[in-house]
Write a structure and sequence with these properties.
With 188 residues, the protein is an all-alpha fold. The chain is built from 6 helices and no strands. It is elongated, with a radius of gyration of 28 Å.
């Protein structure tokens, strides 16, 4: 008989501990799912601009004695350029859809003026992005013919970190600095 009460105590202890474990598991699982649901759509659908995109780039891990613009580096920059191109193209398409769908008549002149000003700013932004898209396509083409990453003026390496900061860079830092000095002298 001594064994039966022991088993009942063990069962009673097991019953008491099991529900608390389940409660803990139930509390942690929904919070992880909620966080995952909130972050995934915002990364895919919204484009926060060049600065936000460039800040989200995972830096390339340089290795000692690694050849400049090897296959792994070209693949890294190709993925950056293609994802940037995709995001900008998505924004261009979204704006085009917005233009086609947005035929609103505002009875108040102030509302109409505000709407037109916002529309003008968005069009100006899209124009800048259209020019950037052509630079991205040019960089992708340079990457395919092994000209990417080398200065268009002097032919030296642009540098991995500079390309990560500005993936469409075509000049090394020295040539770009000289070009900007000449522009300031010429245009004031």
């Amino acid at each position: 008989m001594a064994k039966k009460p022991l088993k009942n105590k063990e069962i009673a202890v097991a019953k008491k501990t099991a529900p608390t474990k389940k409660a803990v598991a139930k509390k942690t699982a929904p919070t992880k799912k909620a966080v995952a649901k909130k972050t995934a759509p915002s990364q895919q659908k919204s484009y926060g601009g060049d600065a936000q995109f460039l800040a989200s780039i995972k830096p390339y891990a340089l290795k000692k004695n690694e050849k400049y613009m090897n296959a792994k580096q070209r693949k890294h920059f190709l993925s950056i350029l293609e994802s940037w191109h995709t995001q900008l193209q998505f924004e261009q398409d979204r704006t085009a859809d917005k233009i086609q769908d947005n035929v609103s008549n505002f009875p108040d002149e102030a509302d109409r003026a505000t709407h037109e000003e916002e529309f003008t700013l968005e069009l100006r932004t899209r124009e800048r992005e259209r020019k950037l898209l052509s630079k991205i396509i040019e960089s992708i083409d340079d990457l395919k013919v092994d000209d990417y990453g080398y200065c268009a003026s002097c032919g030296i390496e642009v540098g991995i970190r500079r390309l990560e900061a500005r993936p469409t860079a075509t000049r090394c830092i020295d040539c770009k600095t000289i070009e900007e000095i000449h522009e300031r002298q010429k245009y004031g």
